[in-house]
Model the fold of this input.
Amino acid sequence: VSVVAVLTAAGSGSRLGHALPKALVPVRGEPLVVHAARRLLDARDARGPLVDTVVVTAPPEHLAAFGTALAALTVDPGRVRVVAGGATRQASVAAGLAALVPPAGSSGAGPSDTTSSDDDEAADVVLVHDAARPFVPPELVARVVAAVEAGHDAVVPGLPVTDTVKRVGAELAGAAPVVGTVERAQLRAVQTPQGFRLGLLRRAHDEAARHAHDESLAATDDAGLVERLGATVVVVPGDERAAKITTARDLRVAELLGDA
Ligand code: C5P
Done:
């Protein structure tokens, strides 16, 4: 089975308050994107390394800097490629998918047919991972791949939610009325890498691109797009070490803890 990864790293990271694009911000001596790419490349099972190729989506104006940062990661330069990301995370993933070698016979295909089979790429698995999760353990990457190989077409890692979560109404003078309490036992906080049959994720993104004008349909993760096709998504146990770095505080925590 061939496994490819799209590593999204085209965000500006404005919430981090750093001059560099977020994925180039160093933590423990290396940029976030280098940590994340290394852990994807390090994932293995009994047969050997799992991820053949990592396609990194970078801010278009920083392609060279990303190429330089990632150059030392592998002896085989073809294993890590840098492409320009898009204006949104979803557009960046779509750009990464487009940069993967297209399946035979797919050229010139019209709007996606959601009933079409994914046979062209039935053997292929794609992972989508955020550079904002630099310390993802390679074992988590392997767990996601294994679940796809075991027959699940869409797999996300998730952790139980420890906070109580309330649904609220419109905020007025700093106070929002509670509309309801969500049953916590049913909730999972979902991480990356998310793993998919490549053909399924391509169809989900093709379909999403047709509704790109409708912001109410924007999804915050790839599985959300796959759910819209009616496909089943499963959750496997996530890992605290795959925590997302969003704020300056998150970065300080990551600097302190690293892989721990
Ligand atoms: O902004 P957020 O933290 O949700 O971004 C999640 C991931 O998506 C980050 O790794 C970021 O670099 C990536 N991203 C992207 N292209 C964008 C926006 C975000 O690849 N236009």
Residues 8-11, 22-23, 57, 85-89, 92, 130-132, 246 surround cytidine-5'-monophosphate (CB under 6 Å). The chain has a mean pLDDT of 92. Residues 2-257 form a domain with the Spore Coat Polysaccharide Biosynthesis Protein SpsA; Chain A fold (CATH 3.90.550.10).
